Structures are given as structure tokens and as C-alpha cells.
Amino acid sequence: MTVVAEAPDLTALEERLALVACGENSRPGKTRACDSCTKKGNTLLRITSTGAVDALTAAICGTGRAPACHECNAKAVRMVRIYHGEAV
Fold first, then answer.
1. CB 79 within 8 A of CB 21
2. What torsion do the CA atoms of 46, 11, 34, 21 make, to the nearest 10 degrees?
3. For 27-53, what is each residue's pLDDT tens digit?
4. pTM
5. How far apart are CA 27 and CA 44, in angstroms?
């Protein structure tokens, strides 16, 4: 008998990534992303799945130009780790 692992809840993962992008660590007690970050959730999830930290950093920072800020780069690294199930 083959056991199939359950697929992760992508909606919950998308919401989690949007919350990180929105600044979860910089605002204690923050439990939801703002509307702008929530709307970016699907895009953030797709970029995060590729592991492209530079592209993810640019999407979070919103400037569209390099170099993105260090805070957004740290958020991108954290998001990739969350995506891969690593302890963060």
C-alpha cells in the first residue's frame, strides 16, 4: 500500500508569507497582513517556491530596483525557509 502525504494548505502558507512580508517580526502581536500584502500573497508564494531570494526581495521591497533594503532581504530569506519547512 502506498501512503500519500497530505499536500500543505497553500492558502495558509500564502497568508503566512504575506504576514512575514508585511512585517510580522517588526510589529509584536501582528496576526494579519495588510490588504496590500494580502493581495501580493499568491505572487509571493510563487516566487518563494522558486527559491529566488533576489526576486522575492524586490517584490517585498516594492521599489522595483536593486538593491533592495536589508530588512526586505531578511524577510525573503525567512519566507524561503518557511516554505521549505525549516525552523525559523
1. yes
2. -40
3. 778 899 999 999 999 999 999 999 999
4. 0.81
5. 20
Cell of 35: 490588504
How far is the C-alpha of 73 from the C-alpha of 75, rounded, in Å?
5
Read off the amino acid at residue 10.
Answer: L
Residue from 56, 66, 64 nearest 21 by CA: 56
The model's pLDDT over 4-21, given as tens digits with 9 standing for 90+, comes to 444 458 899 999 999 999
Nearest CA to 41 out of 65, 20, 62 is that of 20
Residues in the chain: 88
pLDDT score of 87 more than 80: no
